[in-house]
Amino acid sequence: MHQVYLRTYGCQMNERDTEQVQRMFLERGGYAMTKDESEADVILINTCSVRDQAEQKALGKMGMMGKFRAQKPHVVFGFLGCMAQRLGSELFKKTPHLDLVAGTQKYHRVVDHVDSILTSRLEKQMEDPRYTAGQITDIEEESGSQNTITQHELKPDQATAFVSIMQGCNMKCTFCIVPTTRGSERGRPIADIVDECRKISEQGVKEVTLLGQIVNLYGRHEFPAVDNKSPFVQLLEAVHQIPGIHRIRFTSPHPIGYKDDLIQAFARLPKLCPHVHFPLQSGSDRILKAMHRPYKAQKFIDICDKMKAARPGIAITTDIIVGFPGETEEDYQATREVVQRVDFDNAFIFRYSKRRDTPAAEMPDDIQLPEKIKEERNQDLLKLVNSLAFPKYERLVGETVEILVEGASKTNPERLVGRTPHNKIVVFEHGGHPERFIGQILDVKIEDYHKFTFLGTPALTLS
């Protein structure tokens, strides 16, 4: 039985892609998964290219694991995903012991490639124990690849799951490498996605998160609007009808595709969770234009106001980049004003950094901001976001909230962790009986909070 070690860097879509690869290895037979890289016969890293730091981490990790080749000459090493797509065969120069480079449209080919390399290598090493030849690069576009990420390797009592509904992005934001690494928009048929959701619900999954690079633009080139409803809203309605699905989330939407039909879906579909992660990126119209974000700050604010009217109490979180090339103090203050106006529940704030092969990386040096200014704005905006968010947490202390229990806390095995419909994290002690709670929806009384995590106790004891 060959042992496979899989490591993932990056977003939820990368996690979902890794899950698919894992399932395919297990279905092939002759393979088992391991969390110990030293035991592995196959070592694969699924990579991210959104930031240079993510690529450097992956390269560093793979470089460190090259030592296992001396112990086991047959070990197969591979890079998958976005960095693999972006750099291709260049990675063999950076990592001499590398065997496989498989891009973002080739996850379904990974097991075949590994099998081919490993089988050939083991046979030839019977004659020459030092034989390690055999390199494969597979990064070409493949029609229909969006329909290949369909299988799940669910854990016992798994309550939540990601469902990939599309691949690619056509928006070409100047700071973003995704259109290069993921290709153009391609959507899966609604019926196939619904069938996948139904199958995992029958295995105990109660919450699905629909994934897409710009998820609310799903199907706009492939499928027609029906009764003034976009393909994405049609999909939400279809998933909503599955009895075993109790919660629906999606990530991440773009303001350009956020129409009234989607806003009204929050009023009509109770299973659609009252939380949206809605990237702003900047509150300055001038910087938004430089980013190729085709909306103005007021448009973003208007959409948020409409969502709050459609679903009172909805939680809105966001992504913001500070220090984009040419960002003035006036531009930054405009971002600050939008943050205050929208009153976000949380925000992920990033200092701009150059990303090779993106238009922003080619912008003149004289408009690049010093790291000191980027850091100052980053810290200032974090303080503002916290000042808006923490009073909301304070108001929930003493209240009873509904959570879906996902499993053990990563920091304390005596506690379980779950999320509210508003995507707030809640931890509580299980009293030595975690099996009574995992995968269940239950009420928890909030006792306290620390930063962005609530502490609670079950309001009712399960029998």
Description:
This protein has 463 residues and is α/β, with parallel strands linked by helices. It has three domains: 2-138, 3-Layer(aba) Sandwich (Rossmann fold); 145-392, pyruvate-formate lyase- activating enzyme (Alpha-Beta Horseshoe); 397-458, Nucleic acid-binding proteins (OB fold (Dihydrolipoamide Acetyltransferase, E2P)). It has helices at residues 12-28, 52-65, 68-71, 82-87, 90-94, 110-124, 178-182, 190-202, 231-240, 260-268, 285-290, 297-310, 329-342, 371-396; strands spanning 2-8, 31-33, 42-47, 76-81, 100-102, 136-138, 160-164, 166-167, 186-187, 207-211, 247-251, 275-277, 315-322, 346-351, 400-408, 415-419, 425-429, 441-450, 453-458. The chain has a six-stranded parallel beta sheet, sandwiched between helices. It has a five-stranded mixed barrel with strand order 15-16-17-19-18. Strands 7-10-11 form a three-stranded parallel beta sheet, sandwiched between helices. Helix 8 runs parallel beside helix 9 (231-240), helix 10 (260-268) packs parallel to helix 12 and helix 13 packs parallel to helix 14.
Summarize the structure.
The protein is of the alpha/beta class and 463 residues long. Helix content is 34%, strand content 21%. The chain is built from 14 helices and 19 strands.
Write out the strand line-up for the largest beta sheet, numbering strands in chain order: 2-1-3-4-5-6
Mean pLDDT: 94
Low-confidence stretches: none
CATH-assigned fold name of the largest domain: pyruvate-formate lyase- activating enzyme
- CATH C-level label of the largest domain: Alpha Beta
**CATH architectural designation of the largest domain:** Alpha-Beta Horseshoe
- Shape descriptor: globular
The number of domains is: 3
> What proportion strand?
15-25%
Count of strand segments: 19
Count up the helices. Answer: 14
The main β sheet shows up as: 6 strands, parallel
Cα radius of gyration in angstroms? 23 Å
Report how far apart the termini are.
41 Å
CATH superfamily caption of the largest domain: tm_1862 like domain
Look at the helices and sheets and give the structural class.
Answer: alpha/beta
Specify the helix fraction band. Answer: 25-40%
